[in-house]
């Protein structure tokens, strides 16, 4: 039996792109999260698309373009609290639900994302 990556299991680049679009629409409307992001969200969306592609087993787009993600270091300039991390995960969970990711796959994805979100907390 061939084991697929999460990236392949959810439908690859098109699904990740859809997830990122829906997620950042939510972020831009979110009172707590919006101030953490620049007005021009496109560069952030593009980086997130590359990162999530790689994070879930697709091509190493982010690393090929920017080098090692060094997520914590790159987020230190932004005051990220437990409330921010929780809200970020809530928006991501809503986005995964909206695009119809299978529940068991979604839970695996969210568990990985929760660990990452917790790692970003710096205040």
UniProtKB/TrEMBL annotation:
Keywords in alphabetical order: Heme, Iron, Metal-binding, Transport
Annotated GO MF terms: heme binding; metal ion binding; oxygen binding; oxygen carrier activity
Pfam families, per database record: Bac_globin (PF01152)
UniProt superkingdom: Bacteria
InterPro entries attached to this UniProt entry: GlbO/GLB3-like, Globin-like_sf, Globin/Proto, Hemoglobin_trunc
UniProt similarity note: Belongs to the truncated hemoglobin family. Group II subfamily.
Protein name: Hemoglobin
Record organism: Alicyclobacillus tolerans
Lineage of producing organism: Bacteria, Bacillati, Bacillota, Bacilli, Bacillales
